[in-house]
């Protein structure tokens, strides 16, 4: 951990006090998160659990009927969504939408939460497409992409004063965001988000992606971390047209670990670009 010049990072006790401001997740949300950890869950149980929350049901049905899934206007119930889109897709979407909705209800903060949700959707779509090309679970990649910036939501909801200090430190020292966060908070938003994901008992792989999506390394490395990391970059920075610059646009170690060549990256980005407009339409949901 880094220490800010002239001040100390927040103590564990201060972080714990801040986390007391976390939104209280509804019983339905907690049950949906629990369903994410189970492999033997059936369609009826997922549908009946989600249906207990009319707001979550309405938002999820809007997502399911969006052009992104190619079945616009055809899904009238959560059970039907499970059949058409697949049980895992609905379960993972419900969990991510639940978490996002919980934070949207929190007043205050300076974050543009609509823009963050749009970025999360763009990252999720890009991660899903890349995971499919790399032979990894695209459903988990989509969920991990949706939740990768959970720590930013936690900062905005629970540590508003600290966010201002981080911004001031970043402006003064010209550090990147993660370094400024470590200097002021004692950890970056990925580590903070993973701490909350662990409290909510999200799957360990999702926790790992949230923690490491800015710095993919370590003994417990999983390719999904690099997949979400590349997807995050594809959403955050304009992608250059020049193939010569494309290789330098993304973290080289992530490209190397995933075994990606230039042709695969270009094909992936072309696929993602066709879905970008859909992410814009989904961001209002």
Please give a handful of descriptors for the protein shown.
single chain, 285 residues, mainly alpha, Hypothetical protein af1432, 0% strand
Characterization of the model:
The chain is an all-alpha fold. It has a single domain (17-282), classed as Hypothetical protein af1432. Helix content is 69%, strand content 0%. The chain has helices at 12-19, 27-36, 43-51, 54-64, 78-85, 87-104, 113-134, 138-147, 150-158, 160-173, 177-185, 189-199, 204-212, 223-236, 243-249, 252-258, 262-282. Helix 3 (43-51) packs across helix 5. The radius of gyration is 19 Å and the shape is globular. Residues 1-6 have low confidence and may be disordered.
Largest sheet: none
Looking at CATH, the homologous superfamily is Hypothetical protein af1432
Examine the secondary-structure arrangement and name the CATH architecture.
Orthogonal Bundle
Strand fraction: under 5%
CATH class descriptor: Mainly Alpha
Number of spatially distinct domains: 1
Poorly predicted runs of 5 or more residues: 1-6
Instruction: State the helicity in percent bands.
Output: 55-70%
Euclidean distance between termini CA atoms: 37 Å
CATH topology: Hypothetical protein af1432
Morphology call: globular
């Amino acid at each position: 951990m880094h220490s800010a010049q002239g001040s100390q990072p927040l103590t564990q006790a201060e972080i714990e006090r801040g986390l007391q401001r976390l939104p209280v997740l509804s019983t339905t949300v907690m049950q949906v998160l629990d369903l994410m950890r189970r492999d033997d869950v059936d369609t009826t149980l997922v549908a009946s659990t989600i249906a207990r929350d009319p707001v979550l049901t309405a938002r999820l049905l809007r997502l399911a009927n969006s052009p992104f899934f190619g079945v616009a206007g055809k899904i009238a119930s959560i059970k039907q969504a499970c059949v058409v889109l697949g049980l895992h897709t609905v379960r993972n979407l419900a969990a991510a939408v639940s978490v996002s909705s919980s934070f949207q209800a929190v007043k205050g903060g300076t974050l543009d939460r609509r823009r963050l949700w749009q970025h999360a959707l763009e990252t999720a779509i890009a991660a899903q497409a890349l995971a499919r090309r790399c032979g990894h679970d695209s459903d988990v990649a989509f969920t991990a992409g949706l939740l990768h910036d959970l720590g930013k939501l936690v900062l905005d909801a629970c540590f508003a004063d600290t966010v201002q200090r981080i911004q001031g430190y970043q402006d003064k020292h010209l550090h990147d965001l993660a370094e400024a966060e470590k200097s002021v908070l004692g950890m970056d938003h990925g580590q903070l988000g993973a701490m909350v994901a662990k409290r909510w008992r999200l799957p360990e792989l999702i926790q790992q992606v949230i923690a490491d999506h800015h710095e993919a390394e370590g003994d417990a490395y999983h390719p999904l971390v690099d997949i979400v990391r590349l997807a995050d970059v594809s959403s955050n920075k304009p992608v250059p047209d020049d193939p010569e610059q494309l290789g330098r646009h993304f973290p080289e170690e992530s490209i190397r670990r995933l075994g990606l060549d230039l042709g695969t990256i270009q094909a992936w980005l072309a696929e993602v670009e066709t879905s970008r407009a859909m992410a814009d339409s989904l961001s209002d949901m």
